[in-house]
Design goal:
single chain, 120 residues, mainly alpha, two-stranded antiparallel ribbon, 4 strands
Amino acid sequence: MGKRYEEFNHNTPISPQAPMYLTPEEKAAKITPELKVAARRYLCPNCGREFSLFQSRAVACKYCPKANQRCPNVRCPYCDSEFPIAGFIIPKNNGREDERIMNDYTDEVFNRWADRYNRR
């Protein structure tokens, strides 16, 4: 294993704007870089349990009034600890742009789900 593999760990932030390899199967399933980042599992620095940005938004942030207002934080659904998205899910260096992209993406996913399944 090379140095590049050793530098990567479970909590390495990823930019949805970075070049990302998508397999032919992922492309056929309409997987996007935003989906890969939002569904990726991260370790909570507080309790050590794994969770994704989707889990955070759907469970821990479900009733928070900031949840659909481009909140700059991510919350562990297990211990309720809160961390900045920039530096945890996405890199700090281009955090504002990546924050906007990921917040808009997760809001869109949950709004589509709500439109399809919750409203009559």
